[in-house]
Amino acid sequence: MRVIITAPTVFEIAPIIKTLDTHGKKLSFSKYGYAGSEIEILVSGVGAVKSALSMAQLQMMSKVDLAIQVGLAGAFDRSLSLGNVVIVDKDRYGDLGVEENDGTFTSIETLGLEDRNLYPAVDGWIHHKVKADLTHYTLVNGITVNTVSGTQATIDRRQSLFHPQIETMEGAAFYYACRVLDIECVQVRAISNYVEPRNKDNWQIEEAIKNLELEFFRIFPTLSQVKQKGAI
Question: In this predicted model, what pLDDT tens digit does every residue of 158-172 receive, in sequence order?
Fold first, then answer.
């Protein structure tokens, strides 16, 4: 089974690479043998376009059986503790649309530019696609934006429109590309900060990245075993 583990930046995925260096078999510069799978590491770059394009390029070169996106996320939902690791059940674009002259936002679906149920979207949301039992993990919904929320006005607007639990800059594009290319996919994110008027002093990046590595290697056997049994 060929598995892609992708992250926007090197520092988000570095602990996972370190563990694969220690416990996996190095096959090439970016490939490892681990737990019966061939794993390739992909650092896509930050943002939706780079995330989607990188998945398309890999699938063109060789079939991908399972893609796992890992990284950090900001949380709107204050019941999620900093450092928690979550599975993104569904994701959508949070700033794809127009800003009206009164400062309000209208999505492309509301504008009628795109059907909110155009595949792979369901009511505007794009879901993960794995049949592994993920019920013992924290499942959340997320929005993907080009500009992260940094003012209370933006935060309030996005919460009112979409009721998101987390925010990233890549997730919906990753899910979109994988679903269109028929790649099994799931997104694993660690909460590094709350979505609030920007204040990096409150962020807990190191703890979040450490927890991300630990939880990733707990979930990976579940995902890979299901795939190998033909259940996905």
Answer: 999 999 999 999 999
What is the chain's length? 232
Top CATH class, 2-228:
alpha beta
47-56, 58-67, 91-100: least confidently modelled range: 58-67
